[in-house]
Amino acid sequence: MEKKIIKILKIFKKNKEKNIKIYNHLIYLYIKYYLNSQRKGNSKTKEKGEIKGSTRKIIKQKGTGNARKGSIKNPLFKGGGRIFGPKKRNYRIKLNKNIKNKVYKILILDKILNKRIFYLNNINIKTYKTNKLILFLLKNKINFDYNKFKYLIITKKINKNLLLSSRNIKNLYINSYNNINYFNFFLADYIIFVGKNIKKFLINNILKLI
User: Fold this and answer.
1) ∠ CA(81), CA(85), CA(91), 5° rounding?
2) Residue 173, beta-bridge partner list
3) Residue 185, SS3?
4) Neighbours of 131 (CB within 10 A)
5) Strands of the 172-176 sheet, one edge to the other
6) Which of 31, 72, 201, 206 lies deepest, with the highest CB count within 10 Å?
7) Contacts of 170 (CB under 8 A, 6+ apart)
8) What are phi and psi of 5, to 5 degrees?
9) How confident is the model at residue 88 (pLDDT cuts 50, 70, 90)?
10) Please, what is the Cα angle at 133 between 129 and 136, to 5 degrees?
């Protein structure tokens, strides 16, 4: 296992400047994709043609000395249409699966290089108590300070006790392996992987990236 990690480090350091430029751009694309997909784009205002109201001409065309006024639905009047108002739109952009997978591997590699990954075989909590989860993580030699750092727990199955006991802890996110939020992965200072033989699985995946 250690030989594989050393191999990764050597290859990564050789092309460090080139790799960082490429990887930063891929991460930028993913963040843009994720944040755009969070936007609903439901804001909509009515234009002149969409307003319900009388079509009667307000004042005659000539002879009053005032400006021409044809419709009560004119945007210049109160209750009239909006000029160039927002319309419903979809903000989503396309991102290939290949890029998403690369971003995931890049982020894992970054966390490994900076020694910000912890491994646990399982999380055994018999009751859903916040204090018990914190004590369990501290007992397993995890630098758990949720006031300073953000943490992401990635596990195979999110059980009820884990979910309920983590809800009151700020800066702690929980994802399953089938539904990893890469944006949370990017924001987190430390990643806690839960599962057997997960270390081998991660190293083998990163080797495919290089």
Assistant:
1) 150
2) 152
3) helix
4) 9
5) 117-120, 190-194, 151-155, 172-176
6) 206
7) 146, 147
8) -65, -45
9) very high
10) 135
**Cα distance between residue 109 and residue 125, in whole Å:** 30
Superfamily classification of domain 2-39+95-209: Ribosomal protein L4/L1 (3.40.1370.10)
Instruction: Give the whole-angstrom CA distance, residue 19 versus residue 9.
Output: 12
pLDDT exceeds cutoff 60 at 206: no
User: Packing angle between helix 2-14 and helix 16-38, nearest 10 degrees?
Assistant: 100
Output the CA angle 107-28-18, nearest 5 degrees: 70
> Token pair for residue 62?
């000539």
Q: How far is residue 81's CA from residue 71's CA, in Å, rounded to a whole number?
A: 11
DSSP H helical ranges for 97-141? 97-113, 130-139
Q: Are 182 and 100 in contact (CB under 8 A)?
A: yes
Instruction: Kindly report, as residue ranges, where domains of CATH 3.40.1370.10 are found in the chain.
Output: 2-39+95-209
- pTM (two decimals): 0.71
Residue type, 61: Q
**HSE-up of 49 (CA within 13 Å, CB side)?**
1
